[in-house]
UniProtKB/TrEMBL annotation:
Domain DUF306, first and last residues per copy: 35-127
UniProt feature coiled coil, ranges: none
The entry's keywords: Signal
The protein's name: Heat-inducible protein
Length: 137
């Protein structure tokens, strides 16, 4: 009888430990996503005087400046790293380098995945890096 009780107690302890490990991994992903909300980012590795900037206003909205025109988008950033931007709209001022701005907004629409660290936000289309941002103070 003692062997059965010990075996059962060991099984329950093992099960509880494995469940808490999974929860910790999920919690870390959610915490990473929470640290993105409210942050501002500037496009990295680009030339020009007015570099595009973005702000993750909340889990569902991004606002920013595409170098000349302001824009906003509905977004979805999931803890698993998936990313979607839709309904990307912008003001329509005439700008000297409008092609660059149009390309930036198109890449934003194509992104379907993201990676974030304390200083860097990267947007990907599958495995292809589309946009790389540096965190702004």
């Amino acid at each position: 009888m003692r062997k059965i009780l010990l075996g059962t107690a060991f099984s329950v302890a093992l099960l509880a430990t494995s469940c808490s490990t999974t929860k910790t991994a999920d919690t870390k992903k959610e915490e990473k996503l929470a640290t993105v909300v409210g942050t501002k980012w500037q496009l990295a590795d680009a030339t020009g005087t007015a570099l595009p900037t973005i702000k993750i206003a909340d889990e569902q909205k991004m606002i920013g400046n595409a170098s000349c025109n302001n824009f906003s988008a509905q977004i979805k950033m999931n803890p698993d790293g998936s990313f979607f931007a839709k309904n990307v709209i912008s003001t329509r001022m005439t700008c000297k380098h409008i092609d660059t701005e149009v390309n930036f907004l198109n890449m934003l629409r194509k992104a379907n995945r993201y990676k974030v660290t304390a200083k860097r936000l990267e947007l990907y289309q599958n495995e292809i890096l589309l946009l790389k941002f540096n965190r702004m103070p």
